[in-house]
Amino acid sequence: MPAPALPPTAPSACRANTAIILLLALCAGEVVTPAAAGPAAAAYPTPPTLSALPDTPFGAAIRHGHAIFTDTHNGAAAYVGNDLNCTNCHLDAGRQANAAPLWGAWPAYPEYRKKNHRVNTFEDRLRDCFRFSLNGKPPPAGSAVIADLESYASWLARGLPTGVSPAGRGYPRLAEPSQTPEYARGKVVYAQSCAACHMLTGAGLKTAGHTEFPPLWGRDSFNWGAGMANVDVAARFIHANMPYGRGNTLSVQQAWDVALYVDSHDRPQDPRYIASVAETRQKFHASPYSMYGRRVNGRLLGGDTNGAPQP
Ligand code: HEC
Ligand code: HEC
């Protein structure tokens, strides 16, 4: 495999090494810099680290929840249908402010969600990310996988008041783009700032069965029902967190353009699919931010396999 060409703005440690193995060693484990957390970083809660874990049955459950979250393939294999792990979107094992941290979510549930028009428990929310973001099967209610993930989340959030969204929850708001997001401009941003890690094919990079750089589209990525498949959600995540380790370096326009580009590619079918793409769009994707059911480059997104998983 040829060495990937890193964008000119890549951290010097990454740029200096052209061998892919060095790139992986230097960049995959790179710690997100304070700059990525935005100007109000000091105001965010500081979750405890694993070294502070009690040596008790609760400690063991927390440790297991952490293992599932960071290596979902081995920790909860039966419920995962793609190449992603929870931590690929909830960065730093669910600790990173502005990357939908677990400590931000835990105190806010139960909470009403427009997605399913009812009040959701934290368990409901976990099960949804398995179903859509991991393109898998939701673990049964009350199962050990759910219980251990809850142990981990509750421990990260210890001391935070319940019923309140802490600063740093979810993704930051992002201004509207000055120009309508455009595929062609997004393609340029992608080639310059993303393809070095996620590959021009969007398939990411796996080494020895482990996902180093997660796939952004295609059969091994999140499905059409996932939050990240909405251009606005993806734009907010990308602007705050990508390129990896250099959040808040893309312009607002670049984030919207590249989010549109990523979400204009095929991915596994929405598991809520009903009858036809048009009906599924009408029922679940009636949003200007969903590309599902639209035609891009002659291809009907979500459509060409009539409901079967996309190749
Ligand atoms: C230096 C390598 C690198 C670059 C460059 C990079 N990413 Fe990432 N990206 C990652 C890694 C690593 C993760 C997973 C983070 C983790 O597991 O801690 C990730 C995660 C993601 C995710 C969530 C997971 C998924 O598969 O959907 C999206 C979306 C994403 N990146 C989009 C982008 C976009 C868009 C760009 C360009 C603006 C970009 N990335 C540039 C390394 C990179
Ligand atoms: C492809 C990316 C992706 C992956 C992988 C993923 N999630 Fe999510 N998750 C999201 C997005 C997007 C949201 C919504 C964030 C927002 O809109 O603020 C979310 C939200 C959540 C929330 C609620 C956050 C809040 O503040 O309300 C929890 C809890 C959660 N995910 C847990 C998980 C777990 C557990 C896994 C692994 C089984 C997982 N996620 C995998 C993208 C992902």
Note down, in words, how this protein is organized.
It is a single chain. The chain is mainly α. It folds into two domains: 170 residues, Cytochrome c-like domain (Cytochrome Bc1 Complex, Chain D, domain 2); 104 residues, Cytochrome c-like domain (Cytochrome Bc1 Complex, Chain D, domain 2, Orthogonal Bundle). It contains 13 helices and six strands. The chain has a two-stranded antiparallel ribbon. A hairpin with a 2-residue loop joins strand 5 and strand 6. Helix 3 packs across helix 8, helix 9 packs across helix 12 and helix 11 packs across helix 12. The longest helix has 14 residues. The radius of gyration is 19 Å and the shape is globular. The N terminus and C terminus are likely disordered. The site of one heme C has 27 residues, from helix 6 and helix 7.
Descriptive tags:
disordered N terminus, single chain, Cytochrome Bc1 Complex, Chain D, domain 2, binds heme C, 311 residues, 13 helices, two-stranded antiparallel ribbon, 2 domains, mainly alpha
Give a summary of the structure in a few sentences.
With 311 residues, the protein is mostly helical. The chain has helices spanning 12-15, 20-28, 57-70, 72-75, 91-94, 102-105, 122-133, 144-156, 183-193, 195-198, 231-241, 252-262, 277-284; strands at residues 111-113, 118-120, 205-207, 210-213, 295-296, 299-300.
